[in-house]
Amino acid sequence: MMTVGIEKMRFATSNLYLDMTDLAHARGEDPNKYLLGIGQTEQAVVPPSQDAVTLAANAAEQLLTKQERAEIAEIIVATESGVDHSKSVAIYVQRLLELNRYARAIELKQACYSGTFGLMQARDYVSLHPDKKVLVIATDIARYGLNTSGEVTQGAGAVAMLVSANPQIAVINDDSQFMTADIMDFWRPVDHDKALVDGKYSANVYRDFFKEVWQRYQDTTGLTLTDFDAMVFHLPFTKMGLKALRDVLPETDEAHAASLLAAFEASRVYSKRVGNLYTGSLYLSLLSLLANDTQLRGGQRIGMFSYGSGAEGEFFSLTLAPTFKAGLDVLGMEKLLDQRQQLSVPAYEELFEGALWGSADQKAQSKQDPAHFVLTGVQNQQRQYRRQTRD
Fold first, then answer.
1. Which of 204, 336, 190, 202 is nearest to 274 (CA)?
2. Which of 2, 83, 124, 324 has the maximum number of C-beta atoms within 10 A of its C-beta?
3. Beta strands in the chain (DSSP E)
């Protein structure tokens, strides 16, 4: 029997980070407010030489063999950090990675949710065309501004997923339940480069959405919490997912609750060190779970809660393949995070204010950026990208 799901996953982020203890001291806060109350220890900092396009390309490049580049029939990029109101990030990625010329390329937007819609679209396409593959990338840079309430939840990165028939990581089950409501908990007007958010309200809406779609999922499928070996959450900050999980733990026994909590801790290892990825946060959580939970086995069911402010939520499940570890690069992921350069708060603030914004001619210093793909600047109102080779 043919199944469809995630074949491989890879992640890319900046080579720079900020320690949350340093940020807390600079902002006159108790470090435990950030480390424990928010659940973040480090935050990716993006230099002007990186944007949603380069992060997406750097993540996807790690995935693809020459044959797979030719087999890709669709390139789906989910982001709320797009670089153009008209042209999709996916088309830039198609050129930079030299992907199949005869592939569709599209960009999706709905706050942090659209990566999930892209994954579902990919599953449905491959179900009809099992000889094809779809590249799904969730790429974002979370910006709230210096000295704002959301500053501690910034971050950046991209998760790339290859969707195929008979996948080696996980089957995407056809059991989704979703809901939508017009809610102003988070938004970014077209003339803003930073998000606006009602933080406490948004956190409450997130939990309300989770409880409602989770109940609807149980009513529709007949499954309960005891049928799940792990629950993975969109993590704008890691404490939020923990609160949502605790809301439903009374539905199971003490031993199973402890197991789910342990799985959650594994799922937030990477997010604590990177920060908010918007569209990619749920899938960085999944990547972290698969890499760090030693109790996972093929055939187990993983619950997935996707949320995007504004607001849209979805709950669905994955079934792990026995070969799921083969689709990951755990050592590469650890190396990526461990070899980053720590910034001082003043250096971080300078880079934050130096982000390329607008269409005026400008240059980005990319010589110190070790990434394969970099943004070199804007010329004639066009963003300029380059592939670098490193010795």
1. 336
2. 324
3. 4-12, 16-19, 42-45, 72-78, 104-108, 133-142, 155-165, 170-172, 177-180, 186-187, 196-197, 230-233, 301-308, 312-320, 341-343, 362-363, 373-379, 382-387
Among 312, 306, 304, 316, CA closest to 177: 316
Contacts 24+ apart (CB under 8 A), 190-193: 190/85, 193/143, 193/355, 193/357
Alpha-carbon span 123 to 133, nearest angstrom: 9
Which residues are part of a known binding site? 30, 144, 243, 276
pLDDT digits (tens, 9 = 90+) for 355-384: 988 889 999 988 889 999 999 999 999 999
Tokens found for residue 242: 């923990």
pTM of model > 0.85: yes
- Active-site residues, by number, are 80, 112, 234
d(CA 273, CA 40): 7
User: For the chain, how many residues are written?
Assistant: 391
What is the DSSP pairing of strand 42-45 with strand 16-19?
A: antiparallel
Domains of the chain listed by start with CATH number: 4-168+329-387 (3.40.47.10), 171-324 (3.40.47.10)
Q: What is the pLDDT of residues 76-112, one digit of tens each?
A: 999 999 999 999 999 999 999 999 999 999 999 999 9
Binding residues for (3S)-3-hydroxy-3-methylglutaryl-CoA: 30, 144, 243, 276
